Amino acid sequence: MPAQNIPTIETNRLILRGPEAEDYPDFKATFSSYRARFMGGPLNTYEAWMLYAAEIGHWQIHGFGMWMIHDKVTDETYGMAGGWMPAGWPEKEIAWIIWPDAAGRGYALEATHAARNYFYNQQGWDGAVSYIDPKNLDSIRLAERLGAAKDKDANTIDGNDAVYRHPSPDALKDSQIAHGIEMEISHYADPLFKPKGWALD
Amino acid sequence: MLIPTISTPRLTLRAPETGDFPDFAAFYASERSKFVGGPATEEQSWRMLATELGHWPLRGYGRWAVEETETGKLAGIIGLWNPNGWPEPELGWDLMNGFEGKGYATEAALAAREYAYDSLGWTTTISLVSPANDGSRNVAKRMGATFEGMFEHERHGTLEIWRHPSPEDLTAGGMEAYA
């Protein structure tokens, strides 16, 4: 049964939809693994399900939340991305997690870029942050590719996270960084340099 | 999904909403929540409320916010509960602070059980009771449930399983007192 009122976003390669019951095993696999160590994990079965339900309830409470990232063609899931602001969060966050075997293909960039555009253009957000564990280098790199910069003066969640502040809607509009993101995504989707074959030995 | 509304003589079972959070968090901040995983911080309580809401679309059923109809105040969170790792779908009740001793848990739980049996077609249900929670055990007994055994949960520890009368038991066995 789908949750009500969660919008769908299509991008070049992806479709973002509300989290559904059939996607839960993929979520559980990652959140019960070492991969989830920067997101409060690894979680046991019960905790993982409770968090998954909370991801959906977040939408009902705030009118925004985390989408499940699907491949537009095969529908397989690659992770989650979207907005997140449970109690205790100083500001609205843009958050993401990519399943381990889907990493390295630019899906997080493509999904978070689309989510941020949605929040800025459809929901009137005037900015956003990402709270990142300082040891989570992949996420820090993604935040920087999205044009976010470390904000040393901003309030953190609990002192153990670094705050990366995203460019405002005005700063992002028609900017070099926005064009750079589009170009990077298009290169993931259609690489400029393609291997013409594999070495035989 | 659309969460149904149910009325009983004194109570209204409706979808949980953001406005319920202060009372919900006050319950989870209090010692009274020790039988259901508390006490919890405000942040944990917020996630719990989000989980209550998300349970509905994931399972097609969930727990209602139970309002005292006359005052509009939140009296409890009561209904059908089945997170991953639960032994089977459960009928559960949490009364908010200050609403004990009025028979509200029994009144709302009877309505929720009727919904499970009549609208969802359940053929049985259980309630899990923390061994030290006499008030909750009494509600289970008043509803005609019988002790069946113990269940060990990774987070909640040891819980008693109380099995409710089936729909047939209720109609055939002269159990109208419970319905």
Can you summarize this structure?
Chain A is an alpha+beta fold.
CATH homologous superfamily designation of chain A: Gcn5-related N-acetyltransferase (GNAT)
Lateral strand order in the biggest sheet of chain A:
1-2-3-4-5
Structural class of chain A, by secondary structure, is alpha+beta
User: What's the multimeric state?
Assistant: heterodimer
CATH topology of chain A: Aminopeptidase
Structural class of chain B: alpha+beta
The CATH C-level name of chain A is Alpha Beta
Q: How much strand content do the residues of chain B show?
A: 25-35%
Enumerate the spans of chain A where pLDDT stays under 50 for 5 or more consecutive residues: none
Number of helices of chain A: 6
Q: How many β strands of chain A by DSSP?
A: 8
Largest sheet of chain A: 5 strands, antiparallel
Give the full name of the CATH homologous superfamily of chain B.
Answer: Gcn5-related N-acetyltransferase (GNAT)
Name the beta content range of chain A. 15-25%
Radius of gyration of chain B using CA atoms only: 15 Å
Q: Judging by the overall fold, what is the CATH architecture of chain A?
A: 3-Layer(aba) Sandwich
Order of helices and strands of chain B: EEHHEEEHEHEEH
Q: What fold name stands as the CATH topology of chain B?
A: Aminopeptidase
Strand order of the largest sheet of chain B: 1-2-3-4-5
- Tell me, briefly, the overall form of chain A: globular
